[in-house]
Each structure stands twice: as C-alpha cells, then as structure tokens.
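Run log, item B.
One chain of 719 residues. Sequence copied directly from the ordering sheet:
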Amino acid sequence: MLEKLIIQRTLRVPASDGAAGDGTTVARQLDAALLDVGFSASRALLEHVGALAPGPAMDLAATVVSAVRELVGDHVQHNAYFIGFPNGVPDTIEFWTDRLRAAVLAGGATATDAQLRDAVASGGVNLLDLPGYGTYQHTYAELLAVHDALIAAAGDRLTVLRLGDAADVEAARLYLALAGSATPPGEADLAILGELAVACVDGAQPAEVPVRENRAVLNGIRLVLGRPLVAVDTATDVLRLACHVSGGDSSLGTSTRFRAFRRPERRILLAALNEVVGANPNKLGDVVRYAERWKRLGERLHPHEYAQWPYAQEVFAVARGERRVPTLAGRAEAAIRAGAIGPAASVLSAAPGLLLRSADRLLRLASPAERAAVVEAVSGALTSASGRVLLSLREHVGNRLTPESARMYVNRSRRAWVGPDRRPPLPASLVAELSSLLDAEISARLPAPERPLVVDPEVLDVALPLSGKAAEGGFAVLPRGSRAAVSGELLRFFTYWRQTSRRTDYDLSVLLLDDEFHSAGQVSWTNYHHDGVVHSGDVTDAANGATEFIDVPLTVGGRYVVPQVHIFAGESFDEVAESMFGYQTRARDQRGAPFDARTVRARSHLRGQGQVALPMVFARGESGWQAVWLHLYLRGRPSFNRVEGNTFTTADRVRALMERRYLTVSYLVDRWRARGEVTTWNGRLPDEPVTFIGIEVPEDLPEGSQTYTLDRLSELIPE
C-alpha cells in the first residue's frame, strides 16, 4: 500500500479523499493509539481525521497506526526467554547446571553431582539440546502479565506525524525525489522506488536520473510495459537493466542468472545498445570489465538474429574477445606502470570522476616535478565531476595527513575488512591546497537559500548521506559515521528474527572495549551478566519469531559498547523472513515490558551479507554517551559464530571507524555560513518563512517554510 510506504518514509500522512463527516471520536482514538507507540499527530492531521466520516476516518487511522507500528518494530511480539527480564536472570553456570540436572533426572528424583559429572564426561550431552533450553517456556501474554506498566518519563520519544497532500501528490513527490536523487539509494529505497515507478509511470518524470541503479529500476518497469527507455547513455546501463529485470543485482556487485526475454524486450534492449555504441564507439570500452556477463546475456538476447542493429552485435564481439578495444583505464594503467604519472592524469582527464577517484594514488606516485601537473588535472576535473564525488574526495583528503591505525574497506553490501595502512601521508601543504580547491567548488554549487537558514544543532553530527549503501532501512537510522547524543540511564538493545524454512539461531551480544580498544568484557548467551549488563536469555528457534535483549546501564565500565548479532546456525540475514536490530533508552525505574515502542530510539533492518552484524557502537565522551552508526557486517564463520571468536576483528573495525573523520551536515552549514547568516534553532518560532535543516520538523513553522529532515538530507548534496 503506497500510503503506508509514504508514511514510513516521510512521516507525512497522505490526506484522505473520503466523504466528509464527524470523525472526532476516531481522531481522539488515533491520538491515543499513536501515543502508545511514541508518536503524536499534528494539529492539522487530527483536524483532517476529525472532518472525515467515521468510515474513511477509521480506514485512515488504521493505516497510520499500522505504518508506525511496523516502523518501530511494534508489529511483532517481543517475548523474552526469562520472563522477568531484566530481573530474575540467573547466573549462567547456575542456569546451565539446572538444565543439565533436568536432562539426567532419574525416576523423578534430583540428579546428583556424580550423575552430572558422568553425563558431561560421557561427551553425549549437547548443552543446546537440554530440556527447555532455547524455546520460550511462557507465552507473550504471560510475560506482559508479570510486568508493571511503563512509567512515563520526560525523555521518552515522541515523533510527530504531519498531514500531507493527497496520496497521488505525495507519491509523485517522493518518486521524483528518489528517482532524481544524486546519491545511490539503499535497498529499502530501491524497493520503494520500484513500487512508486509503477504508480507514476505515466506522470511527471525527473529531468535527470543521475544514479544508474535508479535508471535500472525505472527502465525495468518501462521494459516490461513496452515503454521507451530513459537515460541510457552507456552499454553498462543496458547490462544493469537486464540484471534488474532478471531479479539480480543492478549494482553489478554479484553475478546474475539472466531470465529468458520476450522478443519485444530483446528488441528494446538491443536497440538501446545499438544507439549508445553508434553514437560513441568508445563506449565499447565499458564492455571488457563485465565480459563474462555480456556473453551470458548474449545467449539470452540472440543478437545475431537482428542484423539491423550492427553496433549492438559489436558489444558481444568485444565480450567474446573477437575485437579488442583499448579502455581509458587500461591506457592510464599502462602509463602508470611506465612511470609516466603526468600523462596518466592527462588520459584520465577524459573521465573526471575516475580521475578524482584515482587522485590519491597519482599524487603518491608522482615525482615532485609531476605533482603540479596532477594537481592541475584534478583542478580541471572538479567542475565536471558530480557533487557526490567531490564530497567523497574532500572527506578522503581530510583523512590523509597521518596514516590510519587500520585501513578499513567496506563494499556495497556493507561487508567490512581491515588491513594495514601502508600509504605514506600526503604533505600538509598538498592536503591544504586540495581542500581549498574542493571547498571552493562545493561552495559554488550549493544553492543560495531563498529564505533565512535555521539549523537544529542535533543534525550537525549526521554524516552526509553520500550513498544509501552506507545505511539500512528502518526508523531514525543515520548514515555510517553519524553521531547522536544518548540520554537516559539505561540502554536496551533488541534483535528480532523470524526464520523462513529452517531452524535459525541468532545471538545478540555486547562487547565492551576500553580506551585502547582492548576487550573489557562481554555479555552473550555464554555469559548472562557482566558489570551490571544483563542478557535476556538465548532463543534458538524462530519459527514464530524470536527476540533477545541486553540491558546496559550507562554507568558500565569501558569506553565503547559494541552490540553485535551473530548467526549461530540457520538462515543468513538476507534469507530470513524478517530481522531487525534496535535500541531503547530508559530510566532505571520505568519498569514496563522488555519492549515498549515509546522508548525505541532507532530500529534498523538486518539485511547485509555476512555472518556477524555490527549495527552501531556507543562511545563515552567528555559530554556523555554518543551513538555512532556502523552498518557493518563481518564474514565470520559459516556457523557457530560467537562474540569470543570475533573480539579482535570487531575491535579493529570499530577503531578504524571511530578514528575516521566523516563529512557531516556541519560541513555544508559552514559553507553556507561563509555566504550569509545561519541561525541555530533554539526552539523559538521565527516570524517569517525559513529554510529549516534538522532531525524533525518543528510544529507551526511559518507558512512557506522549506524543511530538510532525515528523509531529505540527500537533497542537500549538490549535483
């Protein structure tokens, strides 16, 4: 349902076109239901619901409540293994001994210590198969019955939902924003774009579609419907499209098994290839990189049957090696191997983005005499490269004054690995020169605000969303490297998963690190208690869904708290029916059930490739605790992953990320500040329309104000 997607993505509720009437009772019920899950309806939204007839009002209210409950993870039942959690959780050894005694009871009597020793010594006891281990011994209703109601606290989250325009207007607005985005989307946004593309195929289209994965999604719909393709300007665009409609990876990160194409589809794809190569034969250079995939695609498209498109046939001739085409990257690499760094930069100048991504390497290899030529080539490329590439290079340059303690690599699937940083640092004068050039070009591209600019200080530490691949979908999820202040006295982590077809055991764990990123303890299914940190108990089967919790008092020792989710057995993160991670903040005396949506601060999907998920880290600083988003996955082992086996690799990745300096919203604000007045939001409403940048939209901003919140921060990235 598009209305639900719009609510979850924008926190705006599409206006209903239902019959008018008296829906005031439904409006009051909606307001109460939203408060129960940590949301509130704006005055305009309540007035809109109240002006509808009871039937349409109830339909709209049901959609809103369902959408926000899914958003924060309240649409499922979060049961805990130990019914009284966080109270009544036994000592780990005591619990295992109790389970072991139950396994060797003889004739209803209590097992003796000797019987326990004999059972363990025999080697025939699997601790995970002990009676009552890993499966809930009580229902969700029974868990709720033993917990008092949550005591409201001043710091509990309250997220405001606002009234939007009609559903078709909201859908078109979101479609244009996603399709025309200057930054690559994450998996969640790609899925939303696909649904919107079907609904908006006959409506207004974006003037440009800069991101090639977006082109694949849009053209996938157009291909199936027999419509003309849009924004196809390379052969690789056609390959991405073929992968997408075959249910594969349009980013080309993994191979795709191509489906059979209908004859009209083959004509459209081959005609597009013919047009691209016919207009610029140099585009054949793109084919070599994915030659094997082109050969497999050729088996499905039968290009030899279409003599009217000879340029398309050349694509497959290059893929088969029957025709050799020199590539730009190949020519540049040959020059680099010959030691001709200046000429290599000159060759790459024909592809500004590739040149800028190669700038660090060229500058390191260049002799002092050639360095000026490389800088000149880089300077000349700045005006032609995308704003996202400029910002990425600016962030990179800002981290090149000193070697990193460990160099971390993260692919598009958020799989992370580290290695030593053997690169010599760039000279400080060179870093300053490149930074100045980049700052000037980025500043020139930022649009001058048409209204006074007001900035919420809470958004300043949010990392610029240069790629949706650096984040997961969910609620209040920030890009990798973003920081947010943590309030309250207690952190409560939760992970939920529901298996698809086979027994699946995920394990929530917490690793504590000291100032030097050395282990300071852990809590997991093998250790229920440590320094006040408490585990809710191990669940080993999730046919009907399972949840594990960990409570961390903010008085805990250690500098860093690293929650992790390990796959012990069963389905991977992208195979299970559903999986999520989130955290709550609470006061110690709030009581309540282990999960309460009003205390959820953030919830993210777990859908990456890897056996160990590292969603975020919590760091203690001089001004208190901060949540820092990681969005990382470790390869781990095929099964039986435990926190004890990943301590060193986890610490390396946490250290690499914590020591990296990310470009944040404050960088762009500083560029605007140099050009005019920027006001810090202090809670007082302005008298005139403003451009507001913040986490959430304040209530009652003057009419005509423009707002950029978390769902629209990517629109601040200059083109």
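Observations after the first pass:
- The longest helix spans residues 54-72.
- DSSP finds 23 helices and 22 strands in the chain.
Flagged for discussion on Thursday.
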